[in-house]
Amino acid sequence: MAIVLQAAVAMQAVFGTTLDYLARKTGCVQRQRKFSGMSLLRTLVLTVLYRPAAKDRDYCAMAARLGVYVTEQAIDPRFTDGLVQFLSEALKQAVSQTLAAKPLPATLLQKFTDLRIGDSSTIGLPDEVAEQFPGCGGSEKAGKAAMKIQVLWSLKTGQMLQWQIEPGRASDAMSEIMATVPPAGSLLILDLGYFSLERFRRVEEADAYWISRLQHNTKVFDRAGQQLSLLSFLQENGENGLVDVPVVLGEKDRLPCRLIAVRVPTEVAARRRQQVRERARDRGREPSQEYLALQEWTIFVTNCLPELLNWKEVVVLYRSRWQIELLFKLWKSHNHVAQRELEVSPQRQMAVLYAKLVGVIVQHWILLTTTWGDAQRSLRKAAAIVRDWIVQFSDALDDLDRLCDLLRRLGAAIANKARVNRRNKHPSLFQLLENPELLDYTLS
User: Fold this and answer.
1) Sheet order of strands, 160-167 included
2) Distance between CA 167 and CA 184 in Å, rounded?
3) Can you tell me the distance from the alpha carbon of 191 to that of 82, in angstroms, rounded to the nearest whole number?
4) How many domains does the chain have?
5) Is 160 in contact with 153 (CB distance < 8 Å)?
6) Short-list 269, 250, 249, CA closest to 258
């Protein structure tokens, strides 16, 4: 398996001897007595992969497995500004190693050269780093200091196409990482926060495709140039619960595309309206009656013609965007990247965060190697098995053959224990990608 060898080589590169130079350059290892740059990174990253809420004794135990014997009292003084810089640079080296697994064979994915999904996730930071990472303030997720991670991910091969760290205050819509034009024949799906008619036009000019939800207050015209009152238009033309028509978006941009609106069940619309009212109340506003009425519909816009995708296929493909939400959830709930020890120094909090971020990149490579080809795999279950095996990597990182063998054995263990059953009542995304007609969406 080529991916096994690629993952092993990438891991050796990230945990290799170049770290010793980087450690001296950043000043986190000035005179090697116990730790080298290589052993220090291995100790920190493998420890937080094994025990996300690691204590000094856990770092000592992992260091001992690596042949470095230190006391618990020697751990905390290691968390310096130099170590934070060292780990930040090590993270850059890790994300530069891009791995792609064999493309998933799902029928719907075969219509495109790639399926690219993008989103961001925000992590709160200690107030002391607010100058470098200003947050938005006023919320738990983005207070005085926060970090935003932008990710562009191929759902076809699992490859992290781009990864970028930004201040929490940075705008998604202005993110450089999402300005990348996808290759011809690929499909780009982004969250509403990235909605941009200019971006959609660039994608189309590159002979690629896009699907998005419609941003409220975007002006919609029919192909004759007549502006539509969207709510009235849907009410008049959506008696059976579906509207699928060509439109033009934007008064200035005039972007021709396709609008698909699907009526949601009554209880879903009611829940949406309640959420809209709550968000508006938090901002001291009152939602318009038109906006509340539009919660009855899920509205998509795309440049994919009906000959390429029917409406069910558009809905299924847009649902795939939630896979990146699940990836962020895995990092936050399983790897605890957003959890901080508030009683320790800001340097320690930042160093542990960077170590965890290096860890989730390495974990992603392992998951690509061991699970990606199986549509019935559970990344959450697989990651739990990886955690149980992580200490074995401490003995295998310097031996390529041994590391490859460990990855193969880990893959066999995951294949045996980390599968999910096919569901008849609520099909999984990968079942829907194989057969979109399984989508349970009753029109009325």
Assistant:
1) 160-167, 146-154, 115-124, 187-190, 209-213, 297-302, 255-263, 242-249, 220-221
2) 31
3) 36
4) 1
5) yes
6) 249
Phi, psi of 153 (to 5 degrees): -130, 135
Q: Which structure tokens are listed for 202?
A: 């660039």
SS3 218: coil
* Phi and psi angles of residue 37, each rounded to the nearest 5 degrees, phi first: -60, -40
Q: What are the b/e assignments for 24-57, b being 16+ CB within 10 Å? A: bebebbeeeeebbbbbbbbbbbbbbbbbbebeee
For residue 257, count other CB atoms closer than 10 A to its CB. 24
251 assigned to some structural domain: no
263: Cβ contacts below 8 Å, ≥ 6 apart: 238, 241, 242, 296, 297, 443, 444
Nearest to 407 by CA among 423, 429, 385: 385
Give the orientation angle of helix 56-65 with respect to helix 37-50, to 10 degrees: 120
Asked if residue 424 is part of any domain, the answer here is no
| Separation of first and last alpha carbons in the chain | 49
Taking only the tens of pLDDT, the chain with its 444 residues reads 589 999 999 999 999 989 999 999 998 887 767 899 999 999 999 999 999 999 999 999 999 999 999 999 999 999 999 999 999 999 999 999 889 998 888 889 999 999 999 999 999 999 999 999 999 765 444 479 999 999 999 999 999 999 999 999 998 888 888 788 999 999 999 989 999 999 999 999 999 999 999 999 999 999 999 999 999 999 999 889 999 999 999 999 899 999 999 999 999 999 999 999 998 888 888 889 999 999 999 999 999 999 999 999 999 999 999 999 999 999 999 999 999 888 999 999 999 999 999 999 999 999 999 888 777 778 899 999 999 999 999 999 999 999 999 999 999 999 888 776 666 777 888 888 888 888 876 665
Lookup: tokens for 156:
């076809």
Sequence-distant (≥ 6) Cβ neighbours of residue 44 within 8 angstroms: 59, 87, 351, 352, 355
Provide the residue range defining the domain that includes 374: 2-97+342-417
Q: Is 258 helix (H, G, I), strand (E, B) or coil?
A: strand
- Record the pTM: 0.92
Residue 51 CB contacts under 8 Å (≥ 6 apart), including other chains: 58
User: Alpha-carbon torsion 75, 76, 77, 83, what sign?
Assistant: positive
In angstroms, the CA 374 to CA 394 distance is: 27
Determine the 3-state secondary structure of 68 from DSSP.
coil
- Domain annotation covers residue 385: yes
Q: Confirm whether 198 is domain-assigned.
A: no
